[in-house]
# Entry
Amino acid sequence: MDKIVFATNNPNKLAEISAMLKGKFEVISLETLGCTEEIPETADTLEGNASLKAQYIFKKYKVNCFADDTGLEIEALNNEPGVYSARYASEAKDATENMKKVLRKMKGISNRKANFRTVISLILNGQEILFEGSVKGTIREEMCGKEGFGYDPIFEPEGYTLTFAELSRDEKNNISHRGRAVQKLIEFLNHHTS
Ligand code: IMP
# Structure
C-alpha cells in the first residue's frame, strides 16, 4: 500500500484521516517518520503555513505528504485571529484564554459573523496542490458546550442553534472546515492515484 505522511502529531487528526484513506494509503505521522524537530510556521497566511510545513517534509524526506493549517476569521476583527488562532492570547496556546480575548474584543459589537477556514497543502510526486474548506457562523456572547477543542464553545455554525462544542464529533466533522477540506483531499487522492 502507498504511504503518505501527514505533517501532524495530533492523534485525533491522524485517526480521522487514516480511517478515510483506509485500504488506499497508509498514513504516517511525523513521529513515525522520525521527524521530531519543530517545523517552522512563520508565514502570515493559512496557505503559506500549510505550504511551509508540507514543503519542509518533502524537501527533507522526499516523500508524498500533506499538511494543514486552520484559523478562525472574525469579520468585525479584520479576520483576526486567523493565522494566529493558536497563540491569540499568548504563547501558552490556551484555548480558554484565546476565547476570553475574542469575547472581550467583541463586547458591544453586533456584527458577530465569523468563518472557520482550513487549508491543506498536498505534495504528491513533487507537485503541490492546495485544498480549502470553510464553514460560516457567528460568535456567541459566551462559551457554551464541552465537546471539541479550541474556539468550539463560542462558534455557532450557520443553520444551527448550538455551538460546535454542543455537537457530537460526527455532527461537527460532517459540516466543519477541516471535514470539508479533508473531503476534497480524499476525493482528489481517490481519483489521482492507482
Ligand atoms: P491547527 O492549524 O489545526 O493547529 O489550528 C490552529 C488553531 O485554530 C488551534 O490551536 C485552535 O485554536 C483553532 N482551531 C483549529 N481547528 C479548530 C476547530 O475545529 N474548532 C475550534 N478551534 C479550532
Summary: Residues 68-71, 85-86, 95, 98, 148-152, 164, 176, 178 surround inosinic acid (CB under 6 Å).
